[in-house]
Amino acid sequence: KALASSTCPVPRDEVFVVTKHWRKYHGYAPTLECLDKSLSRLGLAFVDLYLMHWPGPAYTVMGKSKAVMEASPLGPFVYAHKGHERENMRALRAETWRAMEDALKAGKCRAIGVSNMTVAHLEALKATATVWPPAVNQVEFHPYRPSPDLVAYCRKEGIVLQAYASLGGQDAGKATLEALGGALMGRPEVAAVADKHGRPGNADVLLRWATQRGIAVIPKSSSTPRMRSNLAAAAGLPPPGGDDDPGGRRLLRAGRRLRARHSTQAPHSSPCPHTRRAGRLPCCYRANHRLQASY
Questions:
Q1: What is the side-by-side order of every strand in the sheet holding 216-217?
Q2: Which residue has the higher pLDDT, 168 or 287?
């Protein structure tokens, strides 16, 4: 609640606040309840971006048994909350989005978007939406999971595709990563590109791989030097710390450009025309797909 405090030194309009709708609250009235809870906890009158976190159901248990799901004709929906059955999810998502549209009109959020949605999910949502396109579709995106069809669809519709797990392997198990050739951060191809371009770490290469394709990235770090390095990599700048820019002015300008390019109020921009391959990495990430177009 620091932003809501009268003593906060940072103006509210200089902070972009994002929060998400939790899947337990799918449906019209529950969605508005969920947003009101978030605003109350944040101590804010509005958020800048409100995302539908998950297209699927809420589950009755945290640890789902693989054996039970494989034995049941319902699959993972054997654990779904009442009302969240497979056949109900499309209508529930539509009602969730309708509530988000009304929250947008009421000024409780300045933009609305989604997370973890496939092309099929988005097409179904579009059929009933009155506010379109979603500002953002936040998904797992990296060289093991490049999702070309989803990238093309979001670009066509004007949806900013935002990557989480940019460094790879959010949902892949150890066996899957080993089958693919190992974790991305340890791939020799990535290390070779980092060395060639004088980058301080492999993370820089993977972040730049995404931004060169017009994808927004949101790497998490509590380290100020790492934040600067991430920003420089995403913007295609040399590593920070040189004598030519002691005040970090290049990074500030780069941050403004990146924010403008991926603005939730603007159409999705084209990828950088100078895209280069960051090594011949496998593009067949098929591990434990959470995005099930069948619902």
A1: 18-21, 49-52, 112-115, 136-140, 160-164, 216-217
A2: 168
Q: Alpha carbon of 72 to those of 57, 67, 77, 79, 111: distances in Å? A: 17, 9, 9, 10, 39
Say how far apart CA 26 and CA 36 lie, in whole Å.
14
First vs last Cα of the chain: how many Å apart? Answer: 37
3-state helix, strand, coil in the chain (%, to 5): 45, 10, 45
205-224 pLDDT, tens digit each: 999 999 999 999 998 888 88
Distance CA 36, CA 41 (A): 9
Q: Which helix (H) or strand (E) holds 113?
A: strand 112-115
- Cα separation, 292 vs 209, in Å, equals 26
What's phi and psi for 272, nearest 5 deg? -60, 130
| CA–CA separation, 293 and 295 (whole Å) | 5
Residues across the chain: 295
Which among 122, 113, 49 is positioned nearest to 291, based on CA atoms?
A: 122
Q: What single-letter amino acid sits at 104?
A: L
CA distances in angstroms from 163 to 108, 155, 160, 206, 216, listed in the order given? 25, 14, 10, 11, 6
Q: pLDDT tens, 158-173?
A: 999 999 999 986 666 7
Instruction: State the burial class of residue 48 (Cβ atoms within 10 Å of its Cβ: 0-12, 13-18, 19+).
Output: middle
Helix (H/G/I), strand (E/B), else coil: 56: coil
Give residue for tokens 């034995």: 71
Q: What is the distance between the alpha carbons of residues 192 and 160, in angstroms, rounded to a whole number? A: 30
- Looking at the chain, the whole-number percentage of residues with pLDDT higher than 70 is 79
CA-nearest of 22, 65, 191, 45 to 109 is 45
DSSP letter for 164, please.
E
